[in-house]
Design a protein that fits this description.
This protein is mostly beta strands. The protein has one domain (about 25-110): Beta Barrel (Thrombin, subunit H), CATH 2.40.10. The protein contains one helix and six strands. Strands 1-2-3-6-5-4 form a six-stranded antiparallel beta barrel. It is globular.
Amino acid sequence: MSATSIQTFSEKRSIPRFALELPIMLNAWAETSRPMSGRTRDISSQGVCFLLDKDAVIGTTIDFVLTLPAEVTMTEPIRVRCRASVLRTENDCLRGKKMVAAKIHRYEFVSPEMA
């Protein structure tokens, strides 16, 4: 590659993601795991990227709950329960965490008592 060539990368996502750092609670991680908390890095209606202390297995189905703040909903905070599958994982060396990217298959808005 010459010094004058330029590399371009195209975005593969069809839905834009929003950089939101929100607390996330994973309720079902694997059959033998306990609930754990983490923080989102970005989110869209079809996917989420979050940081955990523990690695994930690609293909694993996960259930999680997060709360969209009033600044996002433009009303009041809204709790969302989601089911997703893990697409990829990476080490986040800057934070010493595991980055997990997951595709959201379904979600529902829930009251605080139901989450």
